[in-house]
Amino acid sequence: MGWEVGTFMATAGKHHVIIKGVKDGLNFLLDDSCELATVLEELRHKVESTHDRILTGPIVRVQVRLGKRSVSDEEKEEIRAIIGQKGNLLIQSIESDEPEPLVGTAAPITMLKGMVRSGQTLSHEGNLLYMGDVNPGGTILCTGSIYIMGSLRGMAHAGVDGDEAAIVAASHMRPTQLRIAGIISRPPDEWGFQEAFMEYAYIKDGRMEIDKLNGLHRMVLA
């Protein structure tokens, strides 16, 4: 099916529901930037009125794409009920787009913000995106990878349970100590440069290496 169904123009002048013909059937693309009730109102209008004649005929497989919107099971059932009014529309899936994982991890990541001061320890299960600074004497411990959007001037220990695939990345990398699994880095004074911006640390051949973040994809694809 190489055609695109015409779209309904919402009162605000924006299309909240777009129906596209694809090789295997129809894709219903639902806007994720407005209230779900607004989207469902337009979806119902399309199914019942403006697209009534187009959405009839033989069995057609339907994929519903929600963008970045998360919906409950009840809300999915409401979407199914609206589209299911047309007995020929067979819903195959109702899915949100998968969030792009941070490079270096395919696992979920938690975001926290603040400041880790001297004498404080922040412990976390999994991967952590930390929005803030880690001061000298402060410590971050994670079972997964650590991404710091700020200055790392304390200690960071990623992969504390032994995960040598974990990394430590920071906007400004000047730690008192870095650890990944059981590997401890050389002191920053031995890295060969005075200041480190947008760097990450990783394990290679049993030792810790420091590199620019823009080179991280090479490790992932290796």
Automatic annotation (TrEMBL):
Residues covered by the Septum site-determining protein MinC N-terminal domain: 17-94
UniProt keyword annotations, A-Z: Cell cycle, Cell division, Septation
Domain of life: Bacteria
Pfam families: MinC_C (PF03775), MinC_N_1 (PF22642)
SUPFAM superfamilies: Cell-division inhibitor MinC, C-terminal domain (SSF63848)
Matches recorded under InterPro entries: CAP/MinC_C (IPR016098), MinC (IPR013033), MinC_C_sf (IPR036145), MinC_N_1 (IPR055219), Septum_form_inhib_MinC_C (IPR005526)
PANTHER family: SEPTUM SITE-DETERMINING PROTEIN MINC
Function: Cell division inhibitor that blocks the formation of polar Z ring septums. Rapidly oscillates between the poles of the cell to destabilize FtsZ filaments that have formed before they mature into polar Z rings. Prevents FtsZ polymerization.
Family that this chain belongs to: Belongs to the MinC family.
Stated name of the protein: Probable septum site-determining protein MinC
Organism: Paenibacillus chitinolyticus
Lineage: Bacteria, Bacillati, Bacillota, Bacilli, Bacillales
